[in-house]
Give the backbone structure.
Amino acid sequence: MANRSYLYSADSVPSEADLPQRIRCISEHNGDVPLAHKLLVGRGTVVVPSMIWNHPIGIAADYADGAALLRDVLRAVGDGLRDDARFAECAARTAAHLEKQEAKYFLLETGEIVSMTDDDPAASVRRLVSEDVPEAVALAEAALAGRADSWLASVRADWQRHFASFYSDALYFSFPESTDD
């Protein structure tokens, strides 16, 4: 089994009783929660019930603000990779998919990632929300303000790991379309 993080969008957040009406697939990433996913869920971040697993290990966040942050970071990274056509294609494809799948919230599912250790999955997600995501956002904001050039250089050097996720309308865990539209 490939352990992945899964990113979705919806106009509401899951509750203990219900899933959002229309869940749109954004991306999945093998092996960890990449920087892009952390930045996308970096604004208004809260733990919510998972849509896939029976634990409170989902993460919800503001879509518009998270997408704006990632677009700004992709622009800053791209400023140092102007001759890299693969990065330019990745950034354009990511931006287009985010625009197409726009909703009110991002919903990040990390169950496969947090279950790779013996740690409690719910505690791992709380740590991701309280430490890892805010740290990534703070570094990104510092880089955008010109105060974290070495961080930005390290992201440029390994941009595939941070941004080259699988963006698609269908992920390994997809949800049926609502017929209420």
Remarks:
- Helices lie at 35-40, 63-79, 85-100, 111-114, 121-144, 149-157, 159-163.
- The first strand starts at residue 4 and ends at 10.
- The two ends are 35 Å apart (CA to CA).
- The beta strands are 4-10, 24-30, 46-48, 58-62, 105-109, 166-167.
